[in-house]
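From: lab user (bench 3)
To: helpdesk
Subject: output format question, protein + 2-acetamido-2-deoxy-beta-D-glucopyranose

Hello, I'm new to running complex predictions and I'm not sure whether the block I got back is the full result or only part of it. Here's what I submitted:
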Amino acid sequence: MLTFRTLCSLPALLSTTLLTHTLAYPDGLIGEGKGTAKARFATALTGGEGCDSDDLNDIREGFADMISIFQAAIPFEPAGQPATELFGKPYMIRNYTDMISRNLQRAANYGKVEGTEGPANADIHVRCDDPMNVCRFGNKREGSHSAYNIGNEPHVNFCNDYFELGGLEKRVNKKAEDQMEREKLMEYYTRATLWARMVMHFSEIGRAVVVRAIPGPPNSTTEWTLSKTEGAMNTSVLAGVLNERPDNSPSDVQTLKYAYGVTRAKLLAVLSTQMPYDAANNAENYALYAQARYVLREKGFYPNVPVMDFPNEASVLTNENLQDGERFKFAYFDMTDVVARPAGMELKGKPLSSSAAIHNIRLKSFVTSFVCWTFYMFVQAGC
Ligand SMILES: *[C@@H]1O[C@H](CO)[C@@H](O)[C@H](O)[C@H]1NC(C)=O
Ligand SMILES: *[C@@H]1O[C@H](CO)[C@@H](O)[C@H](O)[C@H]1NC(C)=O
Ligand SMILES: *[C@@H]1O[C@H](CO)[C@@H](O)[C@H](O)[C@H]1NC(C)=O
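Helpdesk reply: Thanks, we reran it on our side. This is the complete output you should expect:
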């Protein structure tokens, strides 16, 4: 009897230790293990609706991985091969070079450690409960969204496919060794890349060129003039941007495809049918650029496949299979990955650590007690 009681009190002790341990490490903390110094980011992750503790772990690790790739992507090098392929030739994008460079810098600022000088990026509300019912859209051929942004605010929902994505370091090490796949940029797509696409949608981080057609002044010879301002970054469409010219029939919109994945991201930057800022306006292009710079820094080579080398543009524009590119896109082509926040939905998430952790521990203690109680009953009956 006594022996059993002693045994049973042991897990209780352990779970108390575990509880204190979990509470002592609030959100945003990474770098546990692997002998790295512990650092707590100035930006915290909040909310966590519908996420279990494993999910939250994957989300935190992806966030830290994302910081690593953005830090490899600054300063922006417009003349380098990754930039030329993913944003366009330097003379084509010269009007947008500063914008691109500032976007990358703001994203890299997520690496700011708490307690250091300077402003910090806002906290990010993360969730897994799919409040807008977007995760279920998609099909076998085109895929579905692995995550989506809500309202160009720091608010991201992670779908099931996110949790299938690998960690950065392991994936890059593995693919760089693989003779068949090492040159393919898409093979390096990880949760870091997806996270990077998501933060570029935050209006605080990613700024894009907003073009509006406005009617020309009365009696002027031009019917329309274009006004260019900056706004939040969304996802560009292939072969023509959506515009607001009233003479454009709405059915056109249906034929436009969103540019996710390396093939389409590169097409934005090379096709003459695209505007020079389409690539700079596409969150995925920043994510892939950062991914490429990271591989370049870590492994010393730039994975440049697919190479955009085709006899004529028409051959690409009329070939949907070619445009489709990679098999996995981690997104759904027919749908934007930014959805509006409905009125009444909270932007701010509740602090994460305590509630999520305690919930789990309580469950564990409950299981422990139950096991002890069963043993106790068993032994009683035996005696
Ligand atoms: C850059 O901006 C200037 C001034 O707005 C414009 O005249 C020029 O055509 C632009 N160049 C490119 C390559 O977009
Ligand atoms: C992105 O979408 C938001 C919300 O619809 C809009 O305000 C913003 O202007 C868009 N950005 C661009 C570059 O069109
Ligand atoms: C536009 O042209 C008409 C006819 O030529 C003239 O009567 C009118 O005053 C003009 N309006 C402006 C704003 O110049």
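A quick orientation on your result: The first helix runs from residue 2 to 24. Let us know if anything else is unclear.
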